[in-house]
Amino acid sequence: MSNIRTKKAICILSGGMDSTLASYMAKNDGYEIIAVHFNYGQRTQDRELKAFRDICNDLKILEKYEVDIPFFTQIGASALTDKNIDVPTGGIEAGVPITYVPFRNGIFLSIAAAIAEKEEATAMYIGVVQEDSSGYPDCTDEFIADMKKAINQGTREDTHINIITPLVHLSKAQIVLEAIKLNVPLEHTWSCYKEENEACGICDSCRLRLNGFKVANQTDPITYKVL
């Protein structure tokens, strides 16, 4: 009988293209995946939850957490969580956009770290993209390195968690091609910030996604209102 322990990874899985690819990469790296999804009052919460569940089925994930974080709607300050702020549709602008949710990834990583410690996982995968993203400050290499240090300082001595960001320096086109290479079911993913039935095609997230498919010379399998 083998004494080799199964290596486990927490995958923060929103149901978007990036986090889904990161989860497939974790599986490819030989990890048993524990998927974590956050319902934080985002406009497309129900559609993202469906994507998460579909992808967990695709990956045959047995252990998953669906975590509710209601306070993001209390603080507002983001077009994703405050219905009084319109989601911008005029194209990607310089600086931190209004779709940035204050310290979202820091909070996600903190909660995921608690789950990782409980589950004795040694890795956490998060699909942050620094090179070709919307300019969010919590998607950078430096931020992730600092979070990793804080998490390992603030957990038990025998807890060692590595935060893995396999997409951080990839362009959206590279992400599309890598996803196709790994047979990721992109038709189950959801990226739109505004709509839950057909993707709007004009928010920042849709624009980044569509441009990635265009540059990669591939066809996006989801339906858009505007192309």
Describe the overall structure.
- This protein is α/β, with parallel strands linked by helices and 227 residues long.
- The protein has one domain (8-172): HUPs (Rossmann fold), CATH 3.40.50.620.
- Helices cover 37% and strands 11% of the residues.
- The chain has seven helices and five strands, in the order βαβαβααβαβαα.
- Strands 3-2-1-4-5 form a five-stranded parallel β-sheet, with helices on both faces.
- Helix 5 (141-153) links the parallel strand 4 and strand 5 (162-164).
- The N and C termini lie far apart (56 Å).
How would a crystallographer describe the biggest sheet? 5 strands, parallel
Distance between termini?
56 Å
Classify the beta-strand content into a percent band: 5-15%
- Strand order of the main beta sheet, please? 3-2-1-4-5
Quantity of strands, as a count: 5
**CATH evolutionary superfamily:** HUPs
Q: Give the helix/strand class.
A: alpha/beta
What number of domains?
1
Mean pLDDT: 95
Which H/E pattern describes the elements?
EHEHEHHEHEHH
Note poorly predicted spans: none
Q: Percent helix among the residues? A: 25-40%
CATH topology: Rossmann fold
CATH class: Alpha Beta
**Tally of alpha and pi helices:** 7
| CATH architecture descriptor name | 3-Layer(aba) Sandwich
Structural Rg: 17 Å
